[in-house]
Amino acid sequence: MKAFDADDPFTLVGVGLDVDPDDEALTEMAWSVVEEYVRMGCTGDQILRLFHSPVFQLSHQILRVKGESFVSELAAAADRMRSQVQEQLRGAV
């Protein structure tokens, strides 16, 4: 295991915002979160559970602000993305 290095550029650092993000910013953040979890192999159902968990503060805030139907559409879009990628990979073989 690598020892802690204060100058490590990959160290996670949380930052606060002076103002709450607007609707457009929340939408962009939501899609970024979904894309990241799809790339890690999560299903839409798993992503939906992440948004419902208060442990994942950003995604949970998006759920509270944008609502259940928005998050459900994100989960469905995640499954569509996974299907498209899997289909492309099968065609590349």
Task: Characterize the structure shown.
The chain has 93 residues and is mostly helical. The chain has one domain. The protein has 4 helices and no strands. Helix 1 crosses helix 3 (57-66) and helix 3 (57-66) crosses helix 4. The chain starts with 22 loop residues before the first helix and ends with a helix.
Number of helices: 4
Oligomeric state of the chains in view: single chain
Question: What sequence of helices (H) and strands (E) makes up the elements?
Answer: HHHH
Low-confidence stretches: none
Strand count, sense and barrel status of the largest sheet are: none
| Gyration radius, in Å | 16 Å
- What is the total domain count? 1
Report the mean per-residue pLDDT as an integer.
86
Structural class: mainly alpha
Compute the separation of the termini in Å.
36 Å
In helices, the fraction of residues equals 55-70%
Shape: globular
Can you describe this structure in just a few lines?
By secondary structure, the chain is mainly α.
How do the strands and helices of this protein lay out in sequence?
Blueprint: H1 23-39, H2 44-52, H3 57-66, H4 68-92
Helix pairs in contact: 1-3, 1-4, 2-4, 3-4
List the defining traits of the structure above.
single chain, 93 residues, mainly alpha, 4 helices, globular
